[in-house]
Amino acid sequence: MNSVPRVVCDTNTLVSGLLFRGNERKILGKAVEGLVVVLLSAEILEEFTRVISRPRFGYTERQVESLVETLRRLCQMVETRSRLDCVREDPADNRVLECAVDGEADYLVSGDRHLLKLGSFRGIRIVRSSTLLKELE
Questions:
Q1: What is the DSSP letter of 91?
Q2: Is the C-alpha dihedral spanning 27, 67, 99, 92 positive or negative?
Q3: For residue 129, which phi and psi values (nearest 5 degrees)?
Q4: What CA–CA distance (Å, rounded) separates 61 from 52?
Q5: For the chain, what are the domain ranges?
Q6: Sheet of strand 76-78: strand arrangement
Q7: 6-136 is classed in which CATH architecture?
Q8: pLDDT tens-digit profile of 20-49?
Q9: Rounded to an integer, what distance in angstroms lies between the CA atom of residue 69 and that of residue 112?
Q10: Pairwise CA distance, residues 21 & 116, whole Å
Q11: Are β-strands 120-121 and 124-127 bridged in parallel, bridged antiparallel, or unpaired?
């Protein structure tokens, strides 16, 4: 493993990390401290933007842009070239796996049962946020 773990967070993990206090926010805090590198792809960023723009969150366009910019500054962008079709039940999960593969991630953090069911993929551990935080201690 690299000296600083490389981590991909799925969209829900990113939303939780930016909007709520909890383990997901702690992971983003570790990125600020330089203790992890959070990887992000254009596809994950697009999905994040769609999700955070939903009326239930109540954000203005300007606030959404600010949150997207925060992620861009915090994360390392990965250009995805892989095209995977491993998670048939939820094809959007494949975009997260592609980012992890092409970004040479050590971990993929998710609460998504389709991803967690895999356990690992091409040497990338798929874990909940609480598991990653325990392993970083």
A1: T
A2: positive
A3: -60, -40
A4: 10
A5: 6-136
A6: 76-78, 37-41, 6-9, 107-109, 124-127, 120-121
A7: 3-Layer(aba) Sandwich (3.40)
A8: 999 999 999 999 999 999 999 999 999 999
A9: 25
A10: 22
A11: antiparallel
Tokens of 49: 């933007």
Contact 52, 15 (CB under 8 A): yes
Nearest to 70 by CA among 109, 118, 19: 19
Predicted confidence (pLDDT) per residue in 57-82, tens digit: 999 999 999 999 999 999 999 999 99
**How far from the centroid of its chain's Cα atoms is residue 16's Cα?**
10
Q: What are phi and psi of 120, to 5 degrees?
A: -155, 160
Q: How far apart are CA 107 and CA 123, in angstroms?
A: 9
What type of residue is 62? Answer: R
12 vs 43, 44, 48, 52, 106, CA distance in Å? 14, 10, 8, 10, 19
Tokens of 34: 């330089």
